[in-house]
Amino acid sequence: MKKILYTLIFTLVCGAFYSCDDMLTADVKSSIDDEILFTTPRLAEGALYGIINSFMETNSYRGRYIPLYGTNTDTELYIYSSLTDRRTTLAGYAPETTNTDMNTENGSWAMMYQAIERANLMIEGMRTYSDLENNSELAQIYGEALALRALFYADLLKAWGDIPARFEPITNETMYIAKSDRDVIYKQIIADLEEAAEYVAWPNETTVTSTVERMNKAFVKALRARLCLAAAGYGQRPDGTIRRSTDPDLTVEKMYTIARDECLDIINSNTCTLGGFEETFKELCEEVKSAGRESLYEIPFAAGRGRVAYTYAIRHRVTNMYTNIAQGGVHGPMPSFYYDYDPQDIRRNITCIPYQWNSNSSLDIGVSQEVLNIDTWYFGKYRYEWMSRVASGDSDDGLNWLYIRYADVYLMAAEAINELSGPAAAVEYFYPVRARAFSNADQAEKVDQYIADISVSKERFFEAIVDERAFEFTGEMVRKQDLIRWGKLGEKIGEAKEKMGRLAVREAPYEDLPNYLYYKIADENTGEIDIYGLEIGDTDTEGEELVTDQGYTRASSQRFTSNDEPRIDSDKILSIALNDPDEYQFWPIFEVFINNSNGMLVNDYNY
Predict the structure, then answer these.
(1) Which among 248, 253, 316, 435 is placed 20 to 30 Å from 17, CA to CA?
(2) pLDDT tens digit sequence for 543-582
(3) Which residues contact 496 (CB under 8 A, 6 or more apart)?
(4) DSSP-derived secondary structure letter, 505
């Protein structure tokens, strides 16, 4: 019999790295017969945790892929960009193969393929030994192994384009292999997810699927829908052209049909709920992990592991009652993006934050919000101040990464149905997401009339989906893949640069913004402030009246200029994309992996 060596070794240590509560507690040997391993649910579950553990490695998702992939887009920006910063080059479409964040033997590329190899071993073992048709526990575990492998491949494809395809355990003969056409991989993982959906349970159908830290049928189907849209979409090919697939199995009609059907299966199952927009992210930060809500699956981190808030939360300049980590705000919304929203859209003030937390000796709590100038905004979906515990690691906060939520299912359904059948059939799936974003008083104009206006043609409805996905998902790092698959990456980033140039000097439509922001403490117990001066049409005259009559304070510096120079300078705008994004849609395979490939791997895409 074969022996599985890696699985139980990693089971013994993975409890330190992720937060699934149901850990393997029995003492086990480091080597065990495959037949015993894959016919014993408790042991097979331990092997599954070995795959999950690959998310948690320092240079894997924990410290590299989640913090570094997905920005810059037309709505998202690496805040600390400069023309020579190594992370600017990763974000700004000019990465070098020697980038010190990524060019490490234990980097994201290696950890993803580590996870894939563990999944390959497990899938092969379970197909050989597990009674998948009669043992629901083993069936669930097997389905999750298939789905995890598909997830890791999905993220490799997003970042690198064509990559090696490994769907069998490594042998001496397959130790070194060349890249495969991405279409081959898309077809395999789309088929794998179809199979996985037959084995995993719906949310809350079983104890295992009562938590979003384990994969359920709704997530598997949603991931399959997302991959079908990507597989049918545009993308840069190794020869530099940007095109859709020419594979007859990956046509728009075939892929969008699958995406539509998977999304409708989820919606019609009534196993998930589209909650309030702010509520969804508050629950995420409060670490509510029960399934059946908007969150479909979260990459699970333990309290002392993961840098989600560290990267995406509102910046805390000092430690305080909310966090022992003085961080947050590595990435934020494009400064111009705030003004793309309808002012009545409730998502705007949750997604785009114009303040940070800093010390304030005038308050008993010693900390308060502090207004920012036009060049810096933070995301507000992840917040230390919403957490139910004080983040206490050196840099790791332990918040989960929300991989897909239910709103995405609705908008994918609307997109697919519009393409296949036109806007009249797609409207009912667009409506719930749009309606949630506006108050009851605004429904007639901002929702009903808006939807009537965009439903005049398939093209107009599609453009509305492009906009709506920006308003809904900015800060969740799905925008880059959306823009690539729509063939709009270069176009939209070009538009963002133009908007930023006009905003920098307050040219139309930004000419009616005041020089200063004005603020006052709104709640001395929490340190929250009210801000005036953010809206087009606000004036310094009215701001000064608030200072005189209502106790507001004028910000100490002009919002748009410093020493008579624009705060959004030409280097800031250039750093959004240092090269043409359409010529560098993907990262290169980094040098260490090229050098260790025995000559089998090469870089394309102009690298």
Answers:
(1) 316
(2) 999 999 999 999 999 999 999 999 999 999 999 999 999 9
(3) 73, 74, 75, 334, 336, 337, 576
(4) T
Alpha-carbon distance 490 to 507, whole Å? Answer: 23
Cα–Cα distance, 552 to 543 (Å, whole number): 8
Instruction: Name the helix (H) or strand (E) containing 137.
Output: helix 136-160
Task: Say if residue 509 is preceded by a cis peptide, omega within 30 of 0.
Answer: yes
Burial class, 96, CB count within 10 angstroms (exposed 0-12 / middle 13-18 / buried 19+): middle
Residue 335 DSSP label:
G
Question: CA 343, CA 338: separation in Å to the nearest integer?
Answer: 9
Instruction: Extract the tokens encoding 575.
Output: 């750093």
pLDDT of 454 above 50: yes
Q: Residue 565 pairs with which residues in a beta bridge?
A: 562
Q: How many CB atoms lie within 10 A of CB 537?
A: 9
pLDDT at 85: 87
Query: In terms of C-beta density within 10 A (0-12 exposed, 13-18 middle, 19 or more buried), how is residue 29 classed?
Result: exposed
First to last CA, the chain: 45
DSSP bridge pairs for 76? 333
> What backbone phi and psi angles, to 5 degrees, belong to 25?
-110, -15
C-beta neighbour count of 544 within 10 angstroms: 15
Please name the helix (run of DSSP H) or strand (run of DSSP E) that holds residue 18, with its range, or none.
Answer: none
Statement: the pTM of the whole predicted model exceeds 0.85: yes
For residues 18 and 305, what is the distance between their CA atoms, to the nearest angstrom? 7
Q: Which two tokens stand for residue 607?
A: 């690298």
How do the residues of the chain divide into helix, strand and coil, expressed in percent and rounded to 5? Answer: 45, 10, 40
Helices and strands in the chain, H and E counts: 22, 17
* Element at 355 (helix H, strand E): strand 355-359
Q: State how far the Cα of 414 lies from the Cα of 418, in Å rounded to an integer.
A: 6
Q: How far is CA 462 from CA 232, 272, 313, 384, 422, in A?
A: 16, 25, 31, 36, 10
Q: Quick one: residue 593, left, alpha or beta (phi over 0 = left, psi -120 to 50 = alpha)? A: alpha
* E-state strands within 259-350: 295-299, 331-333
Residue 607 has a pLDDT of: 87
**Contact (CB, 8 A) for 439 and 343:** no
Give the residue from 120, 115, 140 showing the smallest Cα distance to 41.
140
Q: Taking a C-beta distance cutoff of 8 angstroms, is the pair 471, 479 a contact?
A: no
pLDDT greater than 80 at residue 29: no
SS3 298: strand
Contact 597, 174 (CB under 8 A): no
For the four alpha carbons of 219, 225, 231 and 235, in that order, the dihedral sign comes to: negative
- Tell me how far apart the alpha carbons of residues 595 and 56 are, in angstroms, rounded to a whole number: 25
DSSP letter string, 538-567: --HHHHHHHHHHH--EE-SS-SSEETTEES
Per-residue pLDDT at 23: 31
Question: CA-to-CA distance for 120 and 164, rounded, in angstroms?
Answer: 14
Contact 224, 193 (CB under 8 A): yes
Encode 101-135: b = buried (16+ Cβ within 10 Å), e = exposed: bbbbeebbbbbbbbbbbbbbbbbbbbeebbebeee
Contact (CB, 8 A) for 535 and 338: no
